[in-house]
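Technical annex, item 7. During the second reporting period the consortium partners agreed on a shared format for inverse folding records so that results from different sites could be compared directly. Each record opens with the tokenized structure and is followed by the designed sequence. A conforming record, contributed by the partner at site C, is shown below for reference.
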């Protein structure tokens, strides 16, 4: 039986900063549904840039990037919007809307897709309870700690059950118990069919969970995957 088409495909992708500095070179790889990757590499190696490339926050300098069968450089603004609606993103700057409550921030992706207010509120409360923020529904982001903001951003990223979940150092501001709970949440998304990519510098997570691993070294993305039965 032939393997299904990848949901993300990179062919000889190069990425340079505006000053010409090389970030990624000749990256060719495919990501499939129901896959889980740790993204590793030294600080400054390009992990965040790689994730932003997959979210179309950055454009490749050359090569071809295809997401959900769409060549992103040829996609119209409307097509790009539809692609982004299927991608959940957690970056280190959180990007929470200060004028909205925690509950409203988390429910926002469901509002965009047209869910009813009752259903949005129910699902947002459920996921906030899961990440340990059940007492912060009406709080504003500027009253939260860094770790709390991180959990709000994660809850917002997963609430709509995206087909791709990209997380940049999602356990960096939380204690070990919460970190393990968040990893279980990401694992649950993966088991439901999402492609999950988690950038981390915590070797203990990479070594403990034994998921696939992509490592960025000198601009190259090296597949160091370690297979585990059922993953």
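Designed sequence (site C submission):
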């Amino acid at each position: 039986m032939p393997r299904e088409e990848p949901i993300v495909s990179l062919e000889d992708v190069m990425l340079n900063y505006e000053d010409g500095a090389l970030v990624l070179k000749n990256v060719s790889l495919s990501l499939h549904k129901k896959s889980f990757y740790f993204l590793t590499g030294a600080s400054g190696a390009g992990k965040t840039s790689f994730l932003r490339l997959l979210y179309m926050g950055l454009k490749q300098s050359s090569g071809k990037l295809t997401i959900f069968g769409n060549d992103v450089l040829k996609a119209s603004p409307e097509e790009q919007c539809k692609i982004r609606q299927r991608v959940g993103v957690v970056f280190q700057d959180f990007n929470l809307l200060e004028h909205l409550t925690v509950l409203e921030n988390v429910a926002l992706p469901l509002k965009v897709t047209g869910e009813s207010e009752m259903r949005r509120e129910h699902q947002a409360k459920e996921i906030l309870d899961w990440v340990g923020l059940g007492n912060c529904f009406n709080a504003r982001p500027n009253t939260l700690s860094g770790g709390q903001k991180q959990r709000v951003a994660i809850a917002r990223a997963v609430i709509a059950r995206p087909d791709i979940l990209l997380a940049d150092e999602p356990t960096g501001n939380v204690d070990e118990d919460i970190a393990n709970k968040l990893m279980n949440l990401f694992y649950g998304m993966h088991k439901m069919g999402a492609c999950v990519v988690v950038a981390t510098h915590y070797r203990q997570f990479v070594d403990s969970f034994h998921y696939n691993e992509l490592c960025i070294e000198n601009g190259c993305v090296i597949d160091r995957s370690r297979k585990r039965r059922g993953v």
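The helical segments are 47-54, 77-84, 102-112, 117-130, 146-158, 176-191, 203-209. The radius of gyration is 17 Å. All partners now use this format for quarterly exchanges.
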